[in-house]
Design goal:
By secondary structure, the protein is an alpha/beta fold. It has helices at residues 17-28, 45-50, 66-77, 96-108, 117-126, 147-153, 182-194, 197-202, 210-213; strands at 4-13, 34-37, 54-59, 84-86, 133-135, 161-167, 206-207. The protein has one domain (4-212): Glycoside hydrolase/deacetylase (TIM Barrel), CATH 3.20.20. Strands 1, 2, 3, 4, 5, 6 and 7 form a seven-stranded parallel β-sheet that branches.
Length: 217
C-alpha cells in the first residue's frame, strides 16, 4: 500500500432510485471505492452488490438507533458494513452520538468517517480506524473538485496518509426533495471523467477501498 492513498466514497445509496442508478454506474466503472447505503429507505442491494464495490452503512441517526440500522444492513446485504458514516455528518454530533459510533467502530474494527480534527482525535483515542483527512462538498455552490485534490492531480505534493473524498453521484431527480440534486449529476460526470484506478494511478494517485486500508481484525 502506498504511503499516500485516496479513498473515494459515494454517499446516499437508497435516497431515491435515480440517485441509486447513478451510484451503481460509478461503482461499475470503478470510479468509486466504496458506497454508503441508507438502509432505513430499504434500497435494493442487488445492483450494488453486483458491482463488487465495498458497501458501508450511511447512518440516519435522527430516524432510528444505531444498532437497529446495523442489523438492517446485515440482514439486507448479507454481511457487516465495510465502514460507518452519517448523512450530513450526523454520526459526528459531539456528545453521546459521536461516542456511540466511535465505540462501535472500535469494537468491530469498522472504519468511521472523521469530519474534523477533534472528531478524528476521538475516533483514534478509542481505537476506531479513520482517514487522515476528509475532502468533498455538502453544497452545490462549492466546486465539485476539491482544491486540494486538484493540486494533487496537477503534480503537486501528495498529502501523507489516507485522504477520503466524499462524493454524491447520481442522476438528478427534481422530485427527490434534496437540496443537492443538480450537484449529483455534476459529481457523477466528474467521477466518470476521472475514471478507474488505472487512470488515477497514471496521474500518480493510488486508490484503495476501506477493507484494503484497514483489514478486518
Amino acid at each position: 500500500m502506498s504511503a499516500e492513498v485516496l479513498l473515494i466514497v459515494a454517499d446516499d445509496y437508497g435516497y431515491v432510485p435515480a440517485y441509486d442508478t447513478g451510484i451503481v454506474e460509478a461503482a461499475a466503472a470503478g470510479a468509486v471505492d466504496a458506497v454508503g447505503a441508507m438502509v432505513l429507505r430499504e434500497p435494493d442491494p442487488g445492483p450494488l452488490l453486483e458491482t463488487s464495490v465495498e458497501v458501508g452503512l450511511h447512518l440516519e441517526l435522527e430516524r432510528a438507533p444505531l444498532e437497529q440500522q446495523l442489523e438492517l444492513f446485515e440482514r439486507s446485504f448479507g454481511h457487516p458494513p465495510a465502514y460507518l458514516d452519517g448523512h450530513r455528518h450526523g454520526h459526528a454530533i459531539p456528545g453521546k452520538t459521536a461516542l456511540a459510533v466511535a465505540r462501535l467502530g472500535a469494537q468491530r474494527r469498522l472504519p468511521v468517517r472523521s469530519v474534523s480534527p477533534r472528531h478524528r482525535r476521538l475516533l483514534r483515542c478509542l481505537g476506531a480506524p479513520t482517514a487522515d483527512r476528509l475532502l468533498g462538498r455538502l453544497e452545490e455552490s462549492e466546486p465539485a473538485m476539491p482544491a486540494e485534490l486538484a493540486r494533487w492531480l496537477g503534480a503537486g505534493e501528495a498529502p501523507p496518509g489516507v485522504t477520503e473524498w466524499m462524493v454524491h453521484p447520481g442522476n438528478p431527480d427534481a422530485t427527490s426533495g434534496s437540496a443537492y440534486d443538480r450537484g449529483r449529476g455534476e459529481d457523477l460526470a466528474l467521477l466518470l471523467e476521472l475514471g478507474d484506478r488505472r487512470r488515477w494511478r497514471a496521474r500518480g494517485v493510488a486508490r484503495a477501498a476501506p477493507g484494503e486500508i484497514w483489514p478486518a481484525g
